[in-house]
Amino acid sequence: NETDLPQSPLKAASDRVVAEPVTPQQDLDRVAAQPTEIAQPLESAVHLAPEGPKRDQSSSDESVPPPELNQPAANTQVKEALEPIPLSEFDWVGDFESLGLTGMTMNIAAHCDWASDGSMVTMRIDVGHHRMLTEVHRKRIVDAVQARLAEPVRIEFLAEQPVSETPMQRRERNRAERLALAVQSIENDQNVQQFIALFDARIMEKTVEPIDPVRQ
Q1: Would you give the distance in Å from CA 66 to the centre of its chain?
Q2: What mean pLDDT is predicted for residues 185-198?
């Protein structure tokens, strides 16, 4: 007689799998019966830092003045210095800088002289610079003069050689005077005198420049 040997657990399990076939429908039912874990939304996994106190925009705007209000105090002094003055007290050469002219307009105006008869003002300018006196430059000069004076005036430009001193002539005269003083100061310096005597040197006046700026 053949002796029945006990079956191993793996053999028994294999027999059960073969003996109990699973249909596709049963697989679907089994998957549906298992609990499903639903992924949490991303927002719930992010820990947001607590918001700080909200900034009061209205108070911030009031505490910081607009840029145009942060002007230096020097502007106030300039406005006070440029207050209109009577025509009788206006000095064309002395007050020329206070007109605020710049560039080519300033250069043309600096070659004009000034003569007033009541509210009528005559400005003579040499022919060479008169050719550059366009309507734009005329208007700038007239507007600058009118803003400086406390009364209205009428200005006429003449293409003639200036009779009185012009601002440019005053500038050149001041520079010549300052240059002469500078040369004299160097010539009187004892160290310079010893150097000239020792090396038989001479002072080149064209290279001498006044230390302090010349009033324009």
Answers
A1: 16
A2: 89
- State yes or no: pLDDT of 80 exceeds 70: no
Total-model pTM:
0.56
- Cα separation, 164 vs 122, whole angstroms: 11
Q: Given a cut of 90, is residue 138 above it in pLDDT?
A: yes
CA distance 40 to 201: 97
pLDDT of residue 209: 83
CA 106 to CA 168: how far, in whole Å?
10
Cα separation of 63 and 69, whole Å? Answer: 12
Cβ neighbourhood burial of 59 (10 Å; 0-12, 13-18, 19+): exposed
pLDDT band, very low/low/confident/very high, at 34 (cuts 50, 70, 90): low
Q: What is the mean pLDDT of residues 33-57?
A: 49
Q: β-pairing, 120-125 with 154-159?
A: parallel
DSSP letters, the chain, are ----PPPPHHHHHHHHHHHS---HHHHHHHHHHS--PPPPPHHHH--PPPP-PPP-HHHHHHHS--GGG---THHHHHHHHT--B-GGG--TTTTSGGG---HHHHHHHHTB--EEETTEEEEEE-HHHHTT--HHHHHHHHHHHHHHBSS--EEEEEES--SSPPHHHHHHHHHHHHHHHHHHHHHT-HHHHHHHHHHT----GGG---SSPPP-
| Cβ proximity of 112 and 123 under 8 Å | yes
